[in-house]
Amino acid sequence: MVGIRDVARKANVSPATVSRVLNQDKTIHVALETKKRIFEVAEKLNYDINKRKYIKKRMPSIGVISTISKASEAQDVYYKELRMGLEEEANRLHIGMNRIYNLSDNPKEWKDLDQLGAIIVVGTVTKQSITDLLSQNQHLIVVDNPDIQQEVDMVYGDLERMTKAVLELFLENGHHRIAYIGGYQVDMDERGGKTINPDEKRVRAYLHFMSDHQLQDYSTHYLGNWTEEDGERLAEELIQSSDPLPTALLVGSDPMAIGVYHTMKKHHLAIGKDIMIASFDNIEAASRLTPGLTTVQINAKSIGKAAVRLAVERIDQIRDEPIILTYPTRLVVRESFVPKRL
């Protein structure tokens, strides 16, 4: 049977565009030539428009539930870019996104979510919370929480793979005493309740790597909040408790790495010589540090846009099966760690 994807492929447009054009969706802005081509292709492929009963089923908007507070989002480049991606793609596809819950700021009972076309969850929420959401709305897209087991759409950056890749580069460059400083995973529920989880994906990848390479004797890690202040504090703990010091350090985020820099310089340790440092996020400040910070770049805006597209596919009933999208990351090399080869 000929389907929407067949028409979309032949007309060289997206399945969502085909669905909305054939639905006579007046909110979509598509060139007349494109609309004409879609109908011509549908006719040529014997796609029975009347039989499929194209009735506009789009609900008014996408809801967003975020575990990040508005204040934290404004200061965190990653989440600021992610939100920008969500909004830009929603505007491009002409779908509302006006119900936004920041659980850290204004926790409330989740209700009437079945009135939304789809729900995008940003951050880590509890397993029970995912179950509660699914009971109200099956069109659920989860961002940055690859550990959940329920069958929902997911999109996230491939942090575990890149964590192992950076650790492999440390090892190939002769470093065995490798330490990790990062943050806890914080799982939230609809009431704003927090569960501290030490099994965050980057530290998990670090521990597995050290074990897999028989480096358990050199394994040491410190966890706290994802802040510059905790980066500074945990680096102090690392220095005070390590003899000898690690020769390489992986940090879970650039803001934490800035705090690590302060501590290392206070102890007159030459970053890039006495100790190699790599981090995650590639915020603007990373390039201004001395020496420049080697860091993993994550395309947060693309992740946000992908989440909206997945939501629209669900709303337009293009597919029923859940999809998992893993976005690649890349290492931006600066003076804090320059591998011999990449």
TrEMBL record:
<keyword id="KW-0238">DNA-binding</keyword>
<dbReference type="Pfam" id="PF00356">
    <property type="entry name" value="LacI"/>
</dbReference>
<keyword id="KW-0805">Transcription regulation</keyword>
<dbReference type="InterPro" id="IPR028082">
    <property type="entry name" value="Peripla_BP_I"/>
</dbReference>
<feature type="domain" description="HTH lacI-type">
    <location>
        <begin position="2"/>
        <end position="58"/>
    </location>
</feature>
<protein>
    <recommendedName>
        <fullName>HTH lacI-type domain-containing protein</fullName>
    </recommendedName>
</protein>
<keyword id="KW-0804">Transcription</keyword>
<dbReference type="InterPro" id="IPR046335">
    <property type="entry name" value="LacI/GalR-like_sensor"/>
</dbReference>
<dbReference type="InterPro" id="IPR010982">
    <property type="entry name" value="Lambda_DNA-bd_dom_sf"/>
</dbReference>
<dbReference type="InterPro" id="IPR000843">
    <property type="entry name" value="HTH_LacI"/>
</dbReference>
<dbReference type="Pfam" id="PF13377">
    <property type="entry name" value="Peripla_BP_3"/>
</dbReference>
